[in-house]
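OP here, attaching both records as promised.
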Amino acid sequence: MKIYIIPLIYSCLLLTLLGCDNKQSDYKIIINNYINNGQYDVAPHSKLIKKQRFEGSYFGTIETNADGLITFYNLNDKKVYFDYQQSQYMIKNQELSKYKINVDDKQNIVSITDSSGNEVIRSTYDEQGRVVKLENSIIGGSNYLFINQITYKNELVVERYYEIFDKTDEANIVPLYLNKKQYFYNAEKQLINSVEHAFIAQNGQYESNEHNQLIPTEQLNCVYDDPNQYGDWTKLYCLNEQEETKRFILRSFEYYD
């Protein structure tokens, strides 16, 4: 199985995305949309992004509609399209696969179903309308389950807990991979750092020490650098414990007026 993970991105300042007369929940919908697409690290800070491009360790593009919701993204050879008017979610890799988008009354994605009506993606929200859990069985096919859990503090995402399971059937779900990521911000609530720990399971078990703490196979310390005039980072680099560069990304933008 080949897996691509994009790194694994309020106040009146942030509400300039939609104008300070808009409700805070409108911006929350945009953040939910990015999280539902695995793109929190690259969500807009203070102005709606029309298109953004990534170059470096991976190559990609994200496009949105005038409401700030993602309509297209690609990562290397994978392309994903959203048609909200037709309620369609489409993946183009070797062939085009179509799914149905199901949303709530605020246009948050609650699930995506296949042609037989089976849920292949399900999003769970807390009482404040923030997505806190995402279950996805599309990325690696029906034999794999991806679960992404989100923790917030003061309306900002502070931790992402991402796990991949081998799912032969409902009764047999075996852990394969775990990624824990913590996010850190400056006084302007701009994303500036993250710490990422990766764990690879052997025979369904993660290695642990005598204190029953999991032992990571890799740790990355990432810096989101050179923010532009709208507070969006333009350079990302991640170092391992030996201070070797393991990930480097340049990011460019087109904004809505």
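Record two, same layout:
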Amino acid sequence: MLLLIGLGIFAYLAVALAFFALSAMELAETARAAPGSLSLALVTAVFWPITLSVMSALVLVTKTRHS
């Protein structure tokens, strides 16, 4: 049981790290890598399930609105 919990935590943190790395690279490429922007990217990376759900909903809403 502890192994499954450990694997779950590892997977969650791995996805959060990927979200943060991609966000930080995007900010660096667009020259907007201010400390505030990186802090916000870290917060959204930690709460990636919520971020993913909200952004998916926004995409669906804007697609149906423009169609």
